[in-house]
# Entry
Amino acid sequence: MFLYNSATHKKAEFTTHTPGHVEMYTCGPTVYHFAHIGNLRSYLCEDVLERFLRWSGYSVRRVMNITDVGHLASDADEGEDKMLLGAKREHKGVLEIAQFYTDAFFEDCRKLNIKRPDVVQPATGCIDQYLKIITKLMDTGYAYFAGGNVYFDTSKLPRYYVFNAHEKEDLAVGVREGVEEDANKRSQNDFVLWFTKSKFEDQALKWDSPWGEGYPGWHIECTGISLKYNGEYLDLHCGGVDNAFPHHTNEIAQSESYLGHPWCPWWFHVAHLNTEQGKMSKSSGEFLTVSLLEEKGYDPLAYRFFCLQSHYRKALSFTWENLGNAQGAYRKLLKKISTLQEGGEVDSAVTAEFHEKFLRQVGNDLNTASGVTLLYDALRAKANDATKLAVLSDLDQVLGLALLDRSAALRETAQSQQHGAYTITGEGDDAVDALLLRRYEAKQAKDFQEADRIREELRSQGIEVTDVPGGAVWKRV
Ligand code: AMP
Ligand code: ZN
# Structure
């Protein structure tokens, strides 16, 4: 596949250390709050990339950390530990918060059809690994001890700003967030590998170390976890674009200094999801979650469809209207697929042609929008239904839109549901049917106020109800 590499600022043919196999690492969530749909855009694009690599014949080992310690309020070494902020906010223990939001994250991923990585490692589970790396960095002169903390010495590197196209912009972030300069640092770019004194007072989690009781910095966790599970040669490292600096820059600095050889040649960065107020972020502004989308009547897979229609390197603007349009298009697509008949001979020339086109088009820097267009082309192709279904099933292994399952469910449940003398015909949603049944019962009991309230509730979920003799027909509009 051809993939843009933010370390070289070029698109080139993707290659790996071991032919046919990809060692892949993804920076996981900081579990002090729910993931917002911006975070999930990054995970979704990374999921499609992983699926594509597997689909095109690679074996993949994908590793993800869970940040449950050490990520301070700014991405530099300033502010409080985010986990501690979460625990204080909710009057709970840090580990309790971590478990709760880790589970919530994977539940959101399940709803969005984002696969769980092969290895998921909470940062608090690998302290020995960080201590081993930091000890070697100290022994080899890449790290120093000052004011109670251990710092990485960036002046020892021939080149620190590896993602230098971001340099100006990123430095501005560094300057803004790092207002209070740490007097212990020999130079502004140095970063903490191990904290003891500076942020220590009410840090709940701390471990013994050769430099005193303390806790690891955020950047060392990804290096430690990746080296442990992916080995010394990583092929592909992923994250949102805000991770490029300082997080990924620092990961590279410490990993390569520790290893003594180049570490990861390919860097995949996903652009942000923005709202009308700007970048969606956990700490400020509008904060949209998967549960909120569901409460408002949106299908999480419609959000997946929405993300796939844009390119991962372009910022994506979120509005309810855009999401509504994507949901309408996704539903129409499912409806169309639900009319296809199974059975009959599959034309393997047609399936091979689509496979090849998808490989080429989506394999051009993960052009998922072209992949979606190919679904429509398949539906229009001069081929029988069995062939179309085979093509859709093949391409959906990468797109992950549950096309066949969802459309089969639609076909089955589009049939009427009989409730005594009352027949409900709709799109097969038990919750909607139950509301309609309650509305019917309210009407029977002459409680018209309740009946109207339920109709209003359904309308607010985008459901249109038509009363027909002996029942009701509903659809999402
Ligand atoms: P965090 O949980 O804050 O460590 O972030 C998890 C992932 O989401 C990281 O890869 C971030 O770069 C990414 N991310 C944060 N904000 C956004 C956004 N608005 N759009 C897309 N990705 C984001
Ligand atoms: Zn990371």
User: Anything to note?
Assistant: The pocket of zinc ion (ligand 2) is lined by residues 27, 222, 247, 251 (CB under 6 Å). The first strand starts at residue 2 and ends at 5.
